[in-house]
Amino acid sequence: MIDVNVASQSFSLVDSVILILMLIISLGIGIYHGYANRKTLKTEVEYLMGGKNMSVVPVGMSILASTLSAIGLMGVQTEMYLYGSTFAFSFFPFLVTALLFNRYILPIFYSLNITSMYHYLEKRFDRRVRLFGSISFLILSTLYMPILLYVPSLSLNQVTGTNIHVTSSILVAIVVLYTCIGGFRATVWTDVFQTITMFGSIIVVLIKGTVELSDEIGFEGIFRNTYERDRYEFPTLRIDPTIRHSFWSITLGGVGYCGYIFCNQNVVQRYLSLPSLKKVHRAAWLSVSIFVSIYFLSIYGGSLLLATFSDCDPKMAGLIQEHDQLIPFFVLLISRNLPGLAGIFIGGMFCAALSSMSTFLNSMAAVVLEDFFKPLSRRNLTMRAKNWIMRGVVVVCGLFCVPLMAIAEKSNTIMQLTNSFEGVTSGSVLGIFILGIFFPSINGSCALMGGIAGLVLMGWISFSAQSAIAAGDLIFETKPLTHEGCPDVFNITVHLNETALNTER
Asked: If you placed Cys at 54, which of 50, 133, 144, 476 could pair as Cys (CB 3.0 to 4.6 Å)?
């Protein structure tokens, strides 16, 4: 393991410069595209769909950025460290879902030539079902965006002490500004930069950690340690809802959750910006390929954490307050002789948040305009009115994140509610789309009743589980951890605040 009884640097000036530079580049890309396309941005199709002539690579990377967040990047590694590799088997339903989505669902959306995917629900069923899907998406997005801000803001707070509200306000200002000015193209191209940054930050941190460990236990020792610590295991076949991960929850739940990842406005809107269905399929498989690469790198990161702290768990040693602080602690530990590494890592977390949030804002603007203002307007909206509506939605929704994030700071409840609501609504809305596509005899009333029934049932199950966890009635035991190898006295100057970062999903 890496010796934790050494002096580790805090967030240095070099780290700060790198982080600020990443944010400036993101903002600069948005401003550039806003200026370069200032004439065409006045049209709805350009602002929301990039003129429907986007290229495969940027769209594929943007799709990836819209489905990844700092929560996911950090959560997978912590999951591997605490509970083992069972969760990694969700990779298989992910691939199956991607294959089915590309084969059966994408061609339907593309042939309809729509902006809001919920328009399909009105064409297939009726307006009530369309509103059910649209409202579910808007509520989920509104609740989820503050969490996207909270995680990187808290990470920076833990290593520098920077006020969370100041950080989140700056992030909101940046993402709202470049989304308003540059529209869809700005969002996509900043996603490209931010995806490269995310991917690069993960690789740099893993390489640095691997090099340090290889000098002590060898590269193969990392995997041997994971095996010896009982982290490699297959999902159990037991049918028990109190088990953290079973074959059934990973398979069935994974298909449903991954189905919603593909079949949601954020992703579909990007697919529909491409000029041909052939390019849509290429972009889809590009995003899936990169996603799988990052996913397995994150799993390896969990093995790296385990090898680093194999006989000295930082929480048990009192070095951190919660295991969710493990990754920032690890990064600062290995960056003691490599200034800038911590800045790259935190910058990657910031970019993950910005890319996901800008995607949500742009998609929410499309849904509000297409599903609410246009159908309710008695006369055709002027282009000027559409521009005000689209940009107004971006500004209002962005600003609304700040007070909601303040609530998240006081309590973990909003995170639990958001994660629960995401699972609840994803199943209901995805189920309605599946009914519409594969069961032609189902009418609107049946679909709506089924969606509401699914919402109520899954809501009861999900929130009951969260209540049981909060009350301590449902506890998921971690794999064996130890602090027997910790030194009696620590000489370490890693600066981590006591606020806990909740990334577990």
From this structure: 50
> What percent of the residues of the chain are helix, what percent strand, and what percent coil, each to the nearest 5?
75, 0, 25
CB atoms within 10 A of CB 380: 9
Res. 59: pLDDT tops 50? yes
Task: Using alpha carbons, select from 304, 311, 265, 279 the residue that is nearest to residue 134.
Answer: 265
Please tell me the pTM assigned to this model: 0.85
Which ranges of 101-163 does DSSP label H, i.e. alpha helix?
A: 106-112, 119-124, 127-160
Tokens for 246, please give them.
């079973």
Largest pairwise CA distance in the chain = 75
Contact 225, 57 (CB under 8 A): no
CATH class of 4-502: mainly alpha
CA 447, chain centre distance (Å): 29
In the predicted structure, residue 25 carries a pLDDT above the cut 70: yes
The amino acid sitting at 99 is: L
Spatial contact of 158 and 328, defined as CB atoms under 8 Å apart = yes
Task: Let me know: does 271 contact 284? Beta carbons within 8 Å.
Answer: yes
3-class state of residue 275 by DSSP: coil
**Which range among 65-74, 294-303, 377-386, 412-421 shows the weakest confidence by mean pLDDT?**
412-421
Separation between Cα atoms, residue 262 and residue 67, nearest integer Å? 9
Which amino acid, 464? S
Q: Which among 403, 404, 109 is positioned nearest to 265, based on CA atoms?
A: 109
CA atoms of 240 and 124, how far apart (whole Å): 37
With cut-offs at 50, 70 and 90, classify the pLDDT of residue 492.
very low
Contacts of 131 (CB under 8 A, 6+ apart): 371
Amino acid 38 reads R
Phi, psi of 66 (to 5 degrees): -75, -20
